[in-house]
Amino acid sequence: MKELRRIAVVTGTRADYGLLRGLLACVRDDPDLQLQILATGAHLSPEFGLSYREIEADGFAIDAKIDMLLSSDSPAGVTKSMGVGLIGFADALARLQPDVLVVLGDRFEALVAAQAAAIARIRVAHIHGGETSEGAIDESLRHAISKLAHLHFVAAEPYRRRVIQMGESPAQVFNVGAPGLDGLQGMRWLSGSDLSAVLGLPLKKRPLFLVTYHPATLGDMPPKLAMAELLAGLDRFADAGVVFTYPNADAGGRELIAMINDYVAAHKQRMCAVASLGSMRFLSLMREADVVIGNSSSGLTEAPALKRASVNIGDRQKGRLKAESVIDAAESRDAIAQAITKALSPAFQGGVANTVSLYGEGGASAKIVAQLKAALPPLQKHFHDINHGI
Fold first, then answer.
1. How many other β-carbons are positioned within 10 Å of the β-carbon of residue 117?
2. Are the CB atoms for 292 and 330 separated by under 8 Å?
3. Is the pLDDT of residue 388 over 70?
4. Does domain 192-352 have CATH number 3.30.10.20?
5. Core-most of 33, 42, 62, 142, by most CB within 10 Å?
6. Distance (Å, rounded) from C-alpha 198 to C-alpha 188?
7. What pLDDT score was predicted for residue 72?
8. Mean pLDDT of the chain
9. pLDDT at residue number 187
10. Which segments of the chain belong to CATH 3.40.50.2000?
11. Of the candidates 259, 261, 288, 317, which has an alpha carbon nearest to the alpha carbon of residue 128?
């Protein structure tokens, strides 16, 4: 009997699971591959909605649950969480013995998993390498993961060139587009009334804002003050319906959650906050929204693909490719309010309808699986000197 190639996929947040879900299905359904899922981070935290249950509700089996989040989200607390996670991944990988470990993006959970795999002599495949996000420590983590990886699946050609510039072999760097766009064509969209029932909030009030703001861990302004400016900017749109999704488990995130909850409580007739919407509800809500607001990568990737205007606040996503539907705003109430006003204008909304995605048009998961089934690169990597060409 043919031995199946074991592909382990790490997911640590509701956000990366939404991007990985199509890939998980492709691996699971391939007769030559065996899927292993390692759930960690915020997935296992009641505070962040126990989102591992969404993975199981989608019909996937979780092969390892690696509990690593401590109650503190200070820099020291996050670092200690990484230490706990390293121990957990070491045990899980020793038990599961995957042939390839797949990680996505720039989160500290992904870095810890890649470190454990490197020591265990397991090949790492990295999705979304080569991108920049200069306002967050995550950028350094992303590039560190790239240097630990053997296979690279990037979302655009400039990112492919950047990974090669870092010394990675061109033969192992593949421009596949963003996997988060794979499911948009076949998505079973929830209607506005369905979403209203789920959220307990009437969504017919216009305009409708979808807000996701994460701590900018390298920003000049403390996250608490930046959030205060965002909320003050939203105050100027007294007729708007607003849905907040919680920030990730980054340093300072819990403080922002408390501010969001207090703000929503004072405006509960037209606002709500959700720890974890899940991919289908989140994307359906984005499709209904008039403006997507915050500093999440979803405002740069999924929102343009869904022809929705985005207001990108601060420097957290600085350096990333941005479609014409994205408006940058400084972390001040005046700049945020001006950007939202521009995004709501008929002229801008008309242009958004013609937005072109800069991250592909879907199909990334199938391309990734094709490479995961091909001959694997050697464990021993060689630095590709840029003078040898791209």
1. 26
2. no
3. no
4. no
5. 42
6. 15
7. 78
8. 92
9. 83
10. 5-183+362-388, 192-352
11. 317
